[in-house]
Amino acid sequence: MNPLKIHLLAPVLAPLLLGNLPACKPDASKAADDVTYYRDVRPILDRTCARCHTDAGIAPSFDDPAVAVAQAAAMQARTANGTMPPPAPDPDCREYADSDRYFISDADKAKIAAWADAGAPLGDAADAPTAPTPRTIAPFDIELIASAPFTPTFDANGDDYRCFELDLENTSAVYVTGFEALVNNPKIVHHVVLFDSHDQSLGDGTGGDPHEGFDCGGFGEDGWEFVTGWAPGGEPVAFADGMGLKLNAGTKLVLQMHYFNSFDGANLEQDQSGYGLTTTESVDERVYMLPVGTYDFTIPAGDADYESTLVFPWTYGDYDILGVFPHMHTRGSRFSYEIAHADASTSCLVQMNDWDFHNQITALYDEPARITAGDAVSMACHWDNSDNPNDVVWGEGTHDEMCFGFTYAIKGN
Ligand code: HEC
Fold first, then answer.
1. Nearest residue to 291 via CA among 310, 272, 306
2. Closest-CA residue to 248 (of 179, 178, 168, 180)
3. Ligand 1 within 6 A of CB of 158
4. Count of alpha carbons within 13 Å of 355, Cβ hemisphere only?
């Protein structure tokens, strides 16, 4: 019999049927068909939302069933309109590590919608999946932590950018085979970026010890070189066996923290984050970080979809591209990056039809992409400047813009 019909008729028929039919039966069969929080929704949330929406995370915790139920309609709306989970590089362009965690399937969206429509039933707590354990590359060979805890002071946008000098006290060059952000207080950490300062003097002019932190208003400073980056839920970056990124003796690194005012009382929280590195003294293949991008753009005031393109002839010889960290700032809306081969074919490197400044991840490819001398790389950045009465140009501040693909590659054999 159709369970829906039973349910509709039940209130009317129940008194009549009580004698010959157990009254709970129609409801029990309905519960088995219902989408419940514990059995059906929680595994989806664990897979695609938990990297931010947990008790320890930057966004409201869906581990708390009461919060999840209260947010059911909002979950349905934000998964339907594509703003949650935040946009990430499209794996159909090029498959990369952990891409399945950055997207929600249409089937899972439909499940969340059905659950919200049914009034967000919790179901049986015994059906809850076991929480996934985060990956680590520990034990580390080098662990670098900011030398003092810091309490952020958020600006009107809810942001605070703070940098910490981290000294790699190595007396000879090392090759880094893996990077793992050691985020001390994930409730307020929106982003971590590690730069090589190239021995420039560090500080914000206030005379403080740069190891204990100094103001740095956006994405690095002129002359700093991007090394690696982390966003909530980002897994450690680990290169394939025999590969490593070279850091010279005595490298002065900069840990840039982007703190975010994620809840009432966030301004009372402290953080003391850092990075764990696995290193080796020699490698078969040195990994290079090649910053590909353009400084040459002016985004006109009020323009809702301004595009800047860059075509850059590849004169470096053969390389295998291992992965890319795409980077724009808050007005970014789309990003694409490809190899334009000499024979007029193309290989997609990164395609993002949407952009969220708060979700920047390193896409490390399952298979490297070969680029050869005579090819070109081609990049297109799009920005939405529609609500801004001012032109925007390149710069390190968050209200300036950037258009970069930080490209990890090894020399081709
Ligand atoms: C990369 C981090 C991240 C991931 C992954 C993520 N979210 Fe979010 N989410 C946030 C942040 C930060 C906010 C608060 C800012 C905002 O509303 O955009 C938020 C807000 C929300 C809100 C609104 C909450 C409120 O109180 O207004 C909902 C609903 C939501 N997310 C649902 C989801 C769902 C469902 C998923 C998984 C399918 C998901 N999010 C994945 C970071 C994330």
1. 310
2. 168
3. no
4. 23
Whether the CB-CB separation of 326 and 288 falls below 8 Å is answered with no
Q: Rounded to the nearest 10 degrees, how much is the dihedral formed by the CA atoms of 186, 191, 194, 195?
A: -150
Q: For residue range 120-166, what is the model confidence (pLDDT) as tens digits?
A: 999 999 999 987 777 899 999 999 999 999 999 998 888 899 999 99
Cα–Cα distance measured from residue 209 to residue 7, given in angstroms and rounded to the nearest whole number: 69
Structure-token pair, residue 284: 């078969």
Q: Cα(266)–Cα(259) distance, rounded to whole angstroms? A: 10
CA angle 209, 232, 306 (to 5 degrees): 95
Nearest CA to ligand 1 atom 14: 59
End-to-end alpha-carbon separation of the chain, Å? 67
* Count of alpha carbons within 13 angstroms of residue 374, beta-carbon side: 6
Say if CB 253 and CB 227 are below 8 A apart: yes
Cβ 279 vs Cβ 244: under 8 Å: yes
The model's pLDDT over 344-384, given as tens digits with 9 standing for 90+, comes to 999 999 999 999 887 888 999 999 999 999 999 999 999 99
Round to whole Å and give the CA distance between 192 and 166.
13
Cα 320 from Cα 407, distance rounded (Å): 10
CB 405 within 8 A of CB 310: no
Cα of 383 vs its chain's centroid, Å: 19
Taking residues 61-86, report their average pLDDT: 95
Ligand 1 geometric centre to CA of 6 (Å) = 37
Q: Is 51 in the pocket of ligand 1 (CB under 6 A)?
A: yes
Residues 6+ apart with CB under 8 A from 319: 288, 290, 370, 371, 409, 410, 411, 412
